[in-house]
Amino acid sequence: MIKKIALSLSLGVGVLFASEQLNFVMTKNVGPLNPHLYSPNEMFAQNMLYEGLSKYDTNAEIKPHLAKGWEVQNDGKTYVFELRDDVSFTDGVKFNAVAVKANFDAILANRERHKWLESANLIQSVDVLSEYKVAINLSKPYAPLVKELSLIRPFRFVSPNSLINGDSKDGIKAPVGTGTYKLESSELGVKDTFVINENYWGEKAKINKIVGKVIPHPNTKVIALKTGEADLIYQSEQIPLDVLADLKKSFNVEISEPINTLALAINSNKAPTSDLSVRKALNLAVDKDAIVKSVFFDTQKTASFLFAKSLPHCDINAKEYAYDIKMANEILTSDGWIKAKDGYRYKNGAKLSIELTYIGTNAMYKSIAEILQAQFKQIGVELNLKAEESSIFYKKQRTGDFGITYNRTWGIPYDPEIFLGSMRSPSHADYQAQLGLANKSKIDEKITEILATFDDDKKDKLIKEVLTELHDEAIYLPISHETNIAISSKKLDGVKALNLANDIEFNKMKLK
User: Using one digit for the tens of pLDDT, what is the confidence trace for 286-314?
Assistant: First the structure.
């Protein structure tokens, strides 16, 4: 089997006179910006500095980027990439096959850290075929490889001069990429400053300098916008959403199409949520419309399934768990959960009590949790709220130490294939939430088959089977489809709220 994809780009000469400075607000500094690692790097900033062989767009289409095209050979076990020959890192080092191999070798030297991503498990070697041609060799066929190479991390390229003895797992010397911007300076707790990459191979950005100001408090961010200290606030969790109506009077406010799904993961491997009747009753007991209205001020839409049906392969033939308190109560009673005088249910002497863990600094999580606590009480379920530091929150997800936890899909291009692939690894809450299912191993086998097939009809059938099984098992409680919100000064043109997570198109913005 041979599949060939190529791209013909027509590039402009760039903007002769770029605007001066754009100020936007951030909750924290962008971090060390190692493209091969994760926290505490800010992904939007990594996306400004580093590029991949391929790139995704708002239609979830994967296109060539630093690679001009590729061929899939050896029945899907070898991918040959033809690289662009006009690209340099911002330190002057040429981007070529040697640089690609150096980066892949550095990433795979830390393979264990990236095991949530199937390509990191399957890549056996990267061969330099010529100055601008490389071959990536896999242990078995893997259809989503090019999609995974488009992700913001870890398969993006840092200058080989920034690697430390050829490695990146313990840090890099400097954040040097090929992107439209480069990091000029960073002041801890104050700001990060990015300047235009004048030698960028593609269309140059229109603004010379981007300054990210560190303003942790949501209300202070709004003040910065109103006083002119900031020109842009981006992403929905930056500010209290109840101020949007007022901001629309003086600023441009744009809300994106749905990005991903905010959901709760319900632990099937821990009592009492190991009981299917409990999981179904919880799904039926949530008034999602009330949450979207009171927490998100109608900037999001309610979700009925783990993935929006508009995504490829996700239009499953299943009935949603519509809000129905009566039915939820009937299911629990039929399964032997009896209400006591205290208003809560008991079965075999055990109280129907569940712990919901959330990140304590996340006001949105807290607000939703308090609504859920009241709604679950209507069906006799005690919901205990446990605020955690983010590191503890994610550790509990990895170890399965939760009854219910917040979870979200990753949006395009991860959804659905790459997100499904991650369910087989204990790196995220999904694996632990599904661990109590009798058919867990079969679900994982189907996901492995999904990732290996190049047959779209077969892939469609398998994905729908997996999603239907997970829905029937009520492992997830979908709440809403999240959106991006962009609030900008009237003097700023070209601002668009994208249906992509962690992608801010600074390169398309222009100051009047």
Answer: 999 999 999 999 999 999 999 999 899 99
Structure tokens at 199: 């030698």
Predicted confidence (pLDDT) per residue in 444-483, tens digit: 999 999 999 999 999 999 999 999 999 999 999 999 999 9
Neighbours of 149 (CB within 10 A): 23
Q: Are 155 and 185 in contact (CB under 8 A)?
A: no
For residue 317, how many other CB atoms are within 10 A of its CB?
A: 6
Region 363-391: what's the mean pLDDT?
96
Query: Residue 477 is encoded by which pair of tokens?
Result: 């409680």
| 116 confidence band (pLDDT: 50, 70, 90) | confident
Query: What is the dihedral sign for C-alpha 136, 140, 143, 144?
Result: negative
Distance CA 243, CA 424 (A): 41
Rounded Cα distance, 107 and 36, in Å = 6
For position 18, what pLDDT does the model report?
A: 55
State how far the Cα of 206 lies from the Cα of 17, in Å rounded to an integer.
Answer: 8
3-state secondary structure 195-217: EECCCCCCCCCCEEEEEEEECCC
| Eight-class DSSP state of 511 | E
Helix axes 440-452, 456-472, angle to 10 degrees: 160
Owner of token pair 């961010």: 221
Helix, strand, coil shares of the chain, percent, nearest 5, are: 30, 25, 45
Cβ atoms 176, 89 nearer than 8 A: yes
Radius of gyration of the chain (CA): 24
Arithmetic mean of pLDDT over the chain: 93
pTM score of the predicted model: 0.84
Do residues 4 and 67 lie in contact, with contact meaning Cβ atoms separated by under 8 Å?
Answer: no
Count the Cβ atoms, other than its own, within 10 Å of residue 424.
22
The per-residue pLDDT for 11 is 35
User: Which is nearest to 42 in space by CA: 235, 288, 278, 180?
Assistant: 235
Report yes or no: 350 and 386 within 8 Å, Cβ to Cβ.
Answer: no
User: Which of 18 and 94 is assigned the larger pLDDT?
Assistant: 94
d(CA 504, CA 484) in angstroms, rounded, equals: 10
Exposed e or buried b for every residue in 51-77, given b needs 16+ CB within 10 A?
bbbbbbeeebebebbbbbbbebbeebb
Query: Tokens 């030698």 map to which residue?
Result: 199
DSSP H or E run through 256: none
Residue 427 confidence (pLDDT): 81
Q: Are strands 382-388 and 353-359 parallel, antiparallel or unpaired?
A: parallel
User: What is the structure's pLDDT at 361?
Assistant: 83
Q: How many CB atoms lie within 10 A of CB 405?
A: 25
Residue 319: phi and psi, rounded to 5, are -90, 130
Determine contact, residues 278/371, Cβ cutoff 8 Å: no
**Can you name the residues that pair with 408 across neighbouring β-strands?**
262
Give me the residues paired with residue 301 across strands: 481
Average pLDDT of the segment spanning 162-179: 97
Number of Cβ within a 10 Å radius of residue 33:
24
Decide if 492 contacts 22 (C-beta within 8 A): yes
